[in-house]
Predict the structure.
Amino acid sequence: MKLEREKNAKRNLVAGTIQRIVALALPFVLRTAIIYSLGGAYVGLNTLFGSVLSVLSLAELGFGVAVVYSMYDPIAKNDHTKICQLLSYYRKCYRIIGTVILGIGLVMTPFIPSLVKSDIPDDVNIKIVYIITLSSTALSYVTFAYKGSLLTALQRNDITSWVTTAITLLRDGIQIFIILQFRNYYAFILVNPLMTLLNGVMVELITRRKYPEYKPIGNLDQASTNIIKSKVKSLFLVKVGNVVFNSVDNIVISAFFGLTTLAIYGNYYYVISTLFGFLKIYYDSMRAGIGNKMALESKEKVYELYEQLFFLQTLLIGWMTICLICLYQDFIVLWLHEEKYLFDEKMVFLLAFYFYSWKIHDIASIFKEAAGLWEYDRFAPLISSMCNLLINIVLVHVIGIYGVVISTIACSLFFPICWQIRVLYKYYFGIPYKPYLKSIGLHAILTCFLGSITYYICKHIQIHPILISFLIKFLVCCIIPLGAYNVFFHKNPLYIINKKRIIRLMKIQGRRNVNS
């Protein structure tokens, strides 16, 4: 079965964008309500537990990625029997994973207080809050998680996006009401596992109605099971490394500086994670299509698509980084109305650079993942995360909280280039990766150049009220970098192709809006 890649990508992009807008607006309101009604320490508590439970999700072993990858081929060949057998196998595995997460999490309960230096709220039993949050994580695996993987493989992320949007609206609405009306943190936390359960049930019902031919029945043959286990073994180290890498910063900040400082850092990181979310929509809309293209077309055709998407990504990430540098502080003040929640300018530059270093390799990672090349660099994320942890602890004693971000930037730049990118170019494309390094270097220089000019102009825009200042600065951030891109690249074939693609998508969506 040849998936309708462009149609599905557009559909996923629309649904994912709406989901992300909802996921952007409501959590900001919710986070603000917690800060003003209960205090920053409660926000820090949420951030800490999010990091701890991410580490617990190591029990998944990278299984979800292997699930989606193993479905690409039978979907392309329209092998319904094999897909049903895979679903049956995945359902059993996901339920085991959820049980393991719950068990390990409960064993860790006595040690949770040692992760917090100070600022634990007096009216909260940190262990009870942790157990409630743990139950929500475990439920996300045991309640039809395998159906979500099927939708991803079918390139129908739009279905899960619409469900997630509805659940987010309901959950955050209830939680905002509880915080403002009752100021009860326990009731606030209890909403999460209930909504997780509802989310799983809704995905199951919709998937059963739209794809009744795919049911978890039959037994998977031993050869296929062995292949999946082999992939999971390779993915395990990748999963360990990535999760520890992403979680260690928050845990170190909590242990060395306390929940209040973690809450401030969490506010800044929340802005970055929102941008991550928008980029995830863009990536998810094309992920299954890339896998399908790899299954059906030549590597030359795949490389043409890779070049186009990589070029577009570098411009997009560069522009977002410039916006962060110029707008970060004004946005935090607009959001929280108080300068006590601000870091200094040095931290702003570091966080913007953190965003750039973390996202600039995404397209290469997506193609590498779709090609199933996990075993060649399976040790890289683990080594990277261990180095990040050690450098974190050393630098935090020397230069304070700056050391946490500097360590992450260094590791997120060095290790992907040395291992992950090389693997994609060597084992899939079969070409040297030096042109990639040259391209990354040139785009980084261009981003620094345009960012310096834009920041200098924005620094001299001081207008009250601050909202007007913010809007003018945003306009400057659009005009200078995007205008410069058009001047520098207007004859570049990759720029022309991407520009035409974006215009075509906008016209199609415009016609749909008119017809509706």
In short: The chain has a mean pLDDT of 85. The longest helix spans residues 259-296.
